[in-house]
Design brief:
Number of strands: 18
CATH topology of the largest domain: Elongation Factor Tu (Ef-tu), domain 3
Helix content: 10-25%
Radius of gyration: 43 Å
Structural class: alpha+beta
Distance between the termini: 22 Å
Strand content: 25-35%
CATH superfamily of the largest domain: Efflux pump adaptor protein, beta barrel domain
CATH architecture of the largest domain: Beta Barrel
Shape: elongated
Order of helices and strands: EHEEEEEEHHHHEEEEEHEEEEEE
Number of domains: 4
Length: about 325
C-alpha cells in the first residue's frame, strides 16, 4: 500500500522534574500528583485527531520558464528608387497606415520620356531586321517565313517577343553579323528598366513610413519609405540554455498580453544560438497568429522545460529553517527533507 505522507504541526511540551533533598541530603523519588496529571494532559495533545494534518499525494510536476518579447512584422522592407522620375498620383496613397494587397502598384513614377526613348530603339531594331530580310531570304529560305512573321506581329508599345531560333550555326553567325542579338538584348534591358517606374507590393502589408509626396522628384538610390507585412508576425524572445535545450523547431506555446487583449499561439520557427554576452541568453523567434495581434505588443508565455516525478507541493509555513517538514508515516512523526 502506497504510504501517505502527512505534513503536520506538532506541539511538543517537555517537563523536567527535580525534587529537593531532605535535611539529611537524601533524594525524594516521589512525583507529586499535580505534576503527574499535567504530563498526562500533554500526552493527550499528541492525538492524531488534534494535529493539523494535510494529506499529500505524490505526482508529476511540470516545470516551466517565462518567455516574453515584443511582436514584430515578419517582413519589413525599405523601398529605394532605382530610376529617376516624378511621383505620380495613385489610387493607393503612399501614406503611413495605408494597407495594400500583394502585387498592388504602391508607387508610380513618370516614365513617359523613358518609354518614348525605348520605343525609338524598338523602331530602329525593326529597321535593322528589315534590312536583313533580303539576304535571309536568299541564304536561308527555310527560316525566312519565321522572321517575316516576327516583324509583322510587332505592335507599337509592346515588349519584343523572343527571337526565332536559328536552324544552323551558319545562320546564327549570319544573324550576329547584323548585330541583331546585341541590339535585341539592349532593348530587353531597357524594357526591364521601364518596369522599375512602377513599384509593386511584394506582399500584403501596410505602409509604416513614407518619405515622398506627389510631385516629388526622386533619384536612383533614394529611400522612398518602409512597408511591413500586415498578417504575418513574429515574437522575438530571449531564452536561457535550459529552455533552448527543451524546445524544438515547430513547438507551439501560448502567449498572452498583460493588458488582457487575448491569447495567441506562437510556433518556434528558428533559434539564433549565439549567446548574448550581456544576458547569456539565446534569441528565439516564434511565428505568432491570432485575431487581434499587432506589431509592438508585449506578450508573455510559459515554456515547459522539464517534469519532476514523485513530488508534492506543501505550504511554505510547513517548511522549517533547516528545510525539513514534519510528516506522519505509519503513526510515527518524522522530520524529512
Amino acid at each position: 500500500m502506497k504510504p501517505l505522507f502527512m505534513v503536520m504541526a506538532v506541539l511538543c511540551v517537555a517537563y523536567t522534574f527535580q525534587s529537593c533533598g531532605n535535611a539529611n541530603g537524601k533524594a525524594n523519588d516521589a512525583i507529586p500528583a499535580e505534576i503527574s496529571a499535567q504530563a498526562e494532559n500533554a500526552k493527550a495533545l499528541l492525538r492524531k485527531s488534534d494535529l493539523q494534518i494535510q494529506q499529500i499525494v505524490l505526482e508529476e510536476l511540470p516545470l516551466s520558464t517565462k518567455v516574453s518579447g515584443r511582436v514584430i512584422p515578419q517582413n519589413t522592407t525599405t523601398l529605394f528608387a532605382e530610376v529617376q522620375g516624378k511621383i505620380l498620383p495613385n489610387s493607393i496613397a503612399f501614406k503611413e497606415g495605408t494597407n495594400f494587397d500583394k502585387d498592388a502598384p504602391i508607387i508610380l513614377m513618370d516614365s513617359h520620356e523613358f518609354a518614348l526613348a525605348l520605343e525609338a530603339q524598338r523602331s530602329a531594331f525593326l529597321n535593322l531586321l528589315t534590312n536583313m530580310m533580303p539576304d535571309m531570304k536568299s541564304d536561308f529560305p527555310e527560316s525566312y517565313p519565321a522572321w517575316k512573321t516576327y516583324i509583322e506581329q510587332y505592335k507599337a508599345g509592346m515588349s519584343l517577343p523572343n527571337l526565332p531560333e536559328p536552324a544552323s550555326e551558319k545562320e546564327k553567325y549570319f544573324i550576329i553579323t547584323y548585330q541583331i542579338y546585341s541590339q535585341y538584348f539592349n532593348i530587353k534591358s531597357q524594357e526591364e528598366r521601364l518596369l522599375k517606374y512602377t513599384i509593386k507590393a511584394p506582399y500584403a502589408g501596410t505602409i509604416i513610413q513614407s518619405n515622398i509626396d506627389i510631385g516629388s522628384l526622386v533619384s536612383p538610390g533614394q529611400p522612398l519609405g518602409t512597408i511591413a507585412h500586415r498578417s504575418k508576425y513574429e515574437l522575438r524572445a530571449g531564452i536561457n540554455l535550459a529552455a533552448a535545450n527543451a524546445i524544438q523547431i515547430g513547438d507551439v506555446i501560448t502567449f498572452a498580453s498583460n493588458d488582457g487583449a487575448g491569447s495567441f499561439k506562437g510556433k518556434l520557427v528558428r533559434i539564433n544560438k549565439t549567446i548574448s554576452p550581456e544576458t547569456q541568453n539565446m534569441t528565439a523567434f516564434f511565428e505568432v497568429s491570432g485575431a487581434g495581434v499587432n506589431p509592438g505588443m508585449y506578450l508573455e508565455g510559459d515554456l515547459k522545460t522539464t517534469t519532476l516525478e514523485n513530488v508534492a507541493i506543501v505550504p511554505s509555513s510547513a517548511i522549517s529553517r533547516d528545510n525539513t517538514v514534519m510528516v506522519l508515516e505509519n503513526n510515527t512523526i518524522k522530520a524529512k527533507r
